Task: inverse folding
């Protein structure tokens, strides 16, 4: 059976959590748990919690969130520089990453030596680097400094060289941490042009930025991370709106706090199965009952909203095919806690692979509080012919004389 082509996943993070241990002489309330240690406490801090992200080939994803949200940690885990405490990460193809200042370069070595070292780590042979070196040097604008140790570079000079390496090694996946802000405006423009060139070449890009306009102008998708969790994953404009609500920058300066501040909801999981709450199942036929169990948490905060839950089944290209929502009067209650929401639906006459998007809206206003997409496909095998819908039709065959 033919199915609509969904872009193959290039970056897959499933259930990724990252715990840091820090040693402190004083307990801080912000940190989450204490383990007794000699001469102070070792503090466990979860920088990432249960992060599921699947990025398909050719997507440009903006990863945004407040300071300390876990964005850089997530990029480092995806780049293989940090090992996740729990969960799995897969990246297909050659990744070039441009991470925070300090990551990836050896300060004692010269710029030239770092170019060779970095390119070698990305799997390039010395001869290939010799060939690419002039282009790397020219783009980086560091010809005068290239034989100085990079520890003496300014932040901007450092980033220029690092970005130049990343984009010249012909990567399939480009991971970029907030660096465009460090270079001067002329260089930022050059970088953006390069990123657009990559987009057009169908490469996969995941970049962290605090420039929210870039997310709406450049990205095909926005992911909001806050306190180590994915809070929103979907439309870039909604992602920016969600972050502005988290940051409180959706109101003019000096405006009073709104009475109804949007609280934090997190959609942890969406599991499709053949029986209520049963094991995950990915294959259905028209007429089967599909049970979808959602795991949603309303985090404690100054205000916790009630939430209407909406589920969208999407086909290739994220086209919504059909939706479900909690009926009026059965929203999530306005109390912090973890909720299970069970939908049951008779599968329509569909054909192909579908992914599920879950959105929690504020009842009344319909404003999205959070959204999340789950890329593990649900397959519906109904018709024998290709197409999203299985449409019954009648057909008659006449002889040519009868038609005229
Ligand atoms: N090696 C480490 N040891 C201990 N804590 C760490 C370590 N690295 C990061 N953290 C903590 O993890 C949290 C997430 O950090 P991360 O650098 O991923 O944030 P970020 O979203 O990139 O923030 P920013 O926007 O400021 O760059 C922060 O609270 C940070 O202090
Ligand atoms: Mg960071």
Result:
């Amino acid at each position: 059976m033919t199915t609509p082509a969904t872009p193959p996943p290039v970056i897959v993070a499933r259930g990724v959590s990252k715990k840091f241990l820090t040693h402190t002489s004083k307990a801080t309330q912000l940190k989450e748990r204490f383990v007794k240690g000699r001469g102070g406490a070792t503090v466990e801090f979860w920088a990432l919690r249960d992060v599921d992200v699947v990025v398909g080939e050719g997507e440009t994803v903006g990863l945004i969130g407040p300071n300390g949200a876990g964005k850089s940690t997530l990029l480092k885990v995806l780049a293989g520089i940090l090992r996740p405490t729990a969960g799995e990460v897969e990246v297909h193809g050659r990744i070039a990453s441009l991470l925070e200042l300090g990551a990836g370069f050896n300060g004692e070595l010269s710029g030239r030596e770092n170019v060779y070292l970095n390119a070698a780590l990305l799997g390039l042979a010395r001869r290939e680097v010799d060939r690419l070196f002039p282009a790397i040097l020219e783009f980086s604008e560091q010809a005068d400094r290239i034989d100085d140790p990079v520890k003496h570079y300014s932040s901007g000079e450092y980033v220029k060289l690092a970005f130049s390496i990343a984009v010249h090694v012909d990567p399939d996946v480009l991971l970029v941490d907030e660096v465009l802000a460090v270079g001067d405006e002329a260089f930022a423009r050059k970088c953006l042009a390069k990123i657009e060139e990559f987009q057009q070449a169908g490469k996969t890009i995941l970049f962290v930025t605090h420039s929210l306009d870039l997310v709406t102008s450049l990205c095909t998708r926005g992911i909001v991370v806050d306190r180590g969790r994915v809070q929103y994953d979907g439309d870039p404009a909604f992602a920016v709106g969600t972050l502005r609500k988290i940051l409180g920058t959706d109101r003019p300066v000096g405006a009073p706090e709104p009475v109804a501040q949007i609280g934090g909801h997190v959609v942890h999981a969406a599991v499709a199965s053949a029986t209520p709450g049963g094991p995950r199942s990915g294959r259905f036929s028209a007429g089967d009952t599909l049970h979808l169990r959602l795991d949603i948490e309303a985090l404690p905060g100054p205000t916790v909203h009630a939430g209407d839950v909406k589920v969208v089944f999407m086909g290739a290209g994220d086209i919504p095919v059909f939706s479900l929502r909690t009926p009026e009067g059965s929203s999530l209650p306005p109390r912090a806690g973890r909720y299970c929401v069970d939908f049951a639906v008779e599968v329509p006459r569909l054909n192909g692979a579908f992914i599920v998007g879950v959105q929690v809206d504020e009842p009344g206003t319909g404003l999205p509080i959070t959204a999340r997409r789950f890329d593990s496909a649900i397959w519906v095998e109904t018709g024998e012919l290709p197409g999203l819908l299985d449409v019954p039709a009648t057909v008659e065959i006449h002889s040519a004389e009868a038609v005229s």
Notes: Residues 27-37, 258-263 have pLDDT under 50 and may be disordered. The chain has two domains: 55-247, 265-380. Residues 71-72, 100, 177-178 surround magnesium ion (ligand 2) (CB under 6 Å). The longest strand covers residues 40-56.
